Amino acid sequence: MRRSGFCHGRRWAAVGSPANISDRAPTGATRLGENPNRGMEAFDARNAKDSTRAVIGAVEDLAKAHKVSMAQVALARVAAQPAVTSVILGARTPEQLADNLKSASLKLSRADLDALSEASKPVVGDYPYGTAGINQRNRGQ
Questions:
Q1: Could you tell me which residues come within 8 angstroms of residue 66 by beta carbon, excluding any fewer than 6 positions away?
Q2: Please, which residues have CB within 8 angstroms of residue 127's CB and are 6 or more apart in sequence?
Q3: Which of 9-13, 63-67, 121-125 has the lowest mean pLDDT?
Q4: DSSP per-residue letters across the chain
Q5: Each residue's pLDDT tens digit, 30-73
Q6: pTM value?
Q7: Range of the domain at 67
Q8: Distances (CA, A) of 80 to 24, 61, 89, 138
């Protein structure tokens, strides 16, 4: 089965970013600017989902088990995907860059990768149309 590394990378890079591995709201300046409230509508909606907490929990468990940062686990997971040829880092500080680069030496086991895949398994639901799609299906009845 052929997989798209781009989708895996986008999703997991977001998990691995230090700003995204907590359910605590950011304080001070963020990538969105100096106003810490900017972008909170997306932060709050994403962090209210059980699936987000499951991914964060799985990454945190593996980070503790391997004695590495959560960012390293997330980046190692992205790099382990068959279709991924490179990982794009989003470090904002030299410390984040140094931590991110350590992920290159982290080799996750098949069991580790399976646990992360299970935690991040997408919920198909009514994709891609949501409520509008449901309403469309019932339109002529």
A1: 72, 73, 106
A2: none
A3: 9-13
A4: ----HHHHHHHHHHHHSGGGS-SSPP-S-BTTBS-TTTTHHHHHHHHTSHHHHHHHHHHHHHHHHHTS-HHHHHHHHHHTSTT---------SHHHHHHHHGGGG----HHHHHHHHHHT----TTTTTHHHHHHHHTTT-
A5: 666 666 666 666 666 666 678 888 898 999 999 999 999 999 99
A6: 0.65
A7: 5-137
A8: 29, 18, 15, 43
Residue type (1 letter), 103: S
Q: Which residues pair with 33 in a beta bridge?
A: 30
* Site of tokens 């391997």: 66
d(CA 87, CA 93): 17
- Placement of tokens 């990982």 in the chain: 87
In sequence order, the β-bridge partners of residue 30 are 33
Number of domains observed in the structure of the chain: 1
